[in-house]
């Protein structure tokens, strides 16, 4: 039978057994944390969330991935979501909150979770709070990856990649040896369609319009930690630790 952390120790090779036990001991001493990460594309959430997840023994919930997983697993909520998608409709807030509710029951979410990509509106935030309240829980901290749009433009529009291997470069921060060419194969690099200034501008406008009220909603509750997301990743990590210990 699976144990509290959803790993059957009988199936763990003896070499891995000790590290698994040490991990569980470390996790047992960690406080529960229920976090929301908010930030525009390129703000560094993808860099920091695995570090937070490991440090606090949390599960990472990206709503887009969870919806796809629920649809693939044909859960009752996944079937409803698929029906909505097939009709070209948006998946309702109640359905998404239901899928989050299902996900946080898993043993891997025992110590808490990181929510990424949700809530995007105040109504979604309220529905999330209501669902957690029924469980006697609440959001502990909202980490706001605050960064100037002009810095994001430089970060994102400078990204180039080698499509076959996935190797990525940046014209300023990690340039290839020869401009426009992969270091290993000498093949041309491409820029993703989303990484252009025009696409970024519309994505940022939508992000700010949607997210500002959500940040204000959680600020009134006194749980927002504002991060200087333009700083190097190691300095942002220190700011996160301070925010989560306060």
TrEMBL record:
Lineage: superkingdom: Eukaryota
Known catalytic reactions: AMP + ATP = 2 ADP
Domain (Adenylate kinase active site lid): residue spans on this chain: 159-194
Keywords for this protein: Kinase, Nucleotide-binding, Transferase
First-tier enzyme category under EC: transferase
InterPro entries per record: Adenyl_kin_sub (IPR006259), Adenylat/UMP-CMP_kin (IPR000850), Adenylat_kinase_CS (IPR033690), Adenylate_kinase_lid-dom (IPR007862), P-loop_NTPase (IPR027417)
Keyword set includes Kinase: yes
CDD domains: ADK
Gene Ontology molecular function terms on file: AMP kinase activity; ATP binding
Enzyme Commission number(s): 2.7.4.3
Entry coiled-coil feature ranges: none
Transmembrane parts of this sequence: none
SUPFAM superfamilies named in the record: P-loop containing nucleoside triphosphate hydrolases
NCBIfam families, sorted: adk, PRK00279.1-2, PRK00279.1-3
Similarity comment: family membership: Belongs to the adenylate kinase family.
PANTHER family tied to this protein: NUCLEOTIDE KINASE (PTHR23359)
Function: Catalyzes the reversible transfer of the terminal phosphate group between ATP and AMP. Plays an important role in cellular energy homeostasis and in adenine nucleotide metabolism.
Record protein name field: adenylate kinase
């Amino acid at each position: 039978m699976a144990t509290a952390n959803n790993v059957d120790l009988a199936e763990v090779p003896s070499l891995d057994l000790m590290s698994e036990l040490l991990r569980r001991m470390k996790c047992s001493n960690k406080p529960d944390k229920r976090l929301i990460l908010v930030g525009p594309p390129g703000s560094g959430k993808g860099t920091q969330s695995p570090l937070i997840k490991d440090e606090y023994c949390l599960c990472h919930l990206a709503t887009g991935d969870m919806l796809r997983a629920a649809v693939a697993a044909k859960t009752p909520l996944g079937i409803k979501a698929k029906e909505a998608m097939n009709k070209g409709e948006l998946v309702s807030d109640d359905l998404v909150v239901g899928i989050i509710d299902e996900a946080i029951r898993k043993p891997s979410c025992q110590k808490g979770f990181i929510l990424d990509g949700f809530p995007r509106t105040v109504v979604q935030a309220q529905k999330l709070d209501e669902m957690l309240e029924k469980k006697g829980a609440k959001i502990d901290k909202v980490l706001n990856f605050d960064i100037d749009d002009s810095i994001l433009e430089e970060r994102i529009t400078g990204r180039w990649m080698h499509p076959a291997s996935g190797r990525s470069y940046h014209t300023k921060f990690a340039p290839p040896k020869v401009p426009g060419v992969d270091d290993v194969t000498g093949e041309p690099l491409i820029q993703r369609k989303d990484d252009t200034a025009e696409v970024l501008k519309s994505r940022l406008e939508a992000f700010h319009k949607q997210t500002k009220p959500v940040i204000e909603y959680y600020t009134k509750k006194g749980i927002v930690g504002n991060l200087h997301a333009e700083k190097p990743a190691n300095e942002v990590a220190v700011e996160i630790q301070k925010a989560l210990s306060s």
